[in-house]
Amino acid sequence: MKTIYLAGGCFWGMQRFFDQFEGVLATEVGYANGPDRAPSYEEVCRSSGHAETVRVDYDEARISLTKLLDLYFTVIDPLSVNRQGEDSGVQYRTGVFYTDAAQLPEIRAVFSREEEKAGRKLAVLLEPLRNFFSAEEYHQKYLEKNPGGYCHIPQEYFHMEDGRK
């Protein structure tokens, strides 16, 4: 099992999106790369410095990190700073946070390809995971519990086969 941490705006939709893919073993939403103390959701909304992030545990024999990152880039605006959809603020910044430096060549290759497509440097952070604090239970699998909840990711992206709309 491998793990990658993806900040892509509101974590409700990011979790719902990644949960659908074969090879994704588990996801958890939380707050990453802020101060070294667990914040509450309210503190995150008041600019605690943490990013809303989804931890993705995956079986690399069934889904590659490259595939996960390709999927990630289909549901974010990689040029937007601290904003995805109608959500804005530092907690909605985008980023790929890793815990295993061996993942860097694969991550950098995807970033390079995405920058080439965009024609400029991405606003997506690429940095080691400094910390990750699990979000409150009511945030876990939120869009499964509340299917009408807001998300910047269009509904049709929650029903993809093998990563294709």
Separate helix tally: 5
List how many beta strands DSSP finds: 8
CATH topology: Peptide Methionine Sulfoxide Reductase, Chain A
- Give the distance, in angstroms, between the N- and C-terminal Cα atoms: 27 Å
Round the Cα radius of gyration to an integer and report it: 15 Å
Helices and strands, in N-to-C order?
EHEHEHEEEHEEH
Question: Beta-strand percentage?
Answer: 15-25%
What's the structural domain tally? Answer: 1
Structural class: alpha+beta
Q: Write the CATH architecture name.
A: 2-Layer Sandwich
Low-confidence stretches: none
In order across it, which strands form the biggest sheet? Answer: 7-6-1-3-2-8
How would you describe the overall organization of this protein?
This protein has 165 residues and is an alpha+beta fold. The protein has a single domain, classed as Peptide methionine sulphoxide reductase MsrA (Peptide Methionine Sulfoxide Reductase, Chain A). It has 5 helices and 8 strands. The strands form 2 sheets. A 6-stranded mixed β-sheet has the order 7-6-1-3-2-8, covered by helices on one side. Strands 4-5 form a two-stranded antiparallel sheet. Helix 3 (65-74) runs parallel beside helix 4.
Fill in the keyword field for this structure.
single chain, 165 residues, alpha+beta, Peptide Methionine Sulfoxide Reductase, Chain A, two-stranded antiparallel ribbon, 5 helices, 8 strands, 24% strand, globular
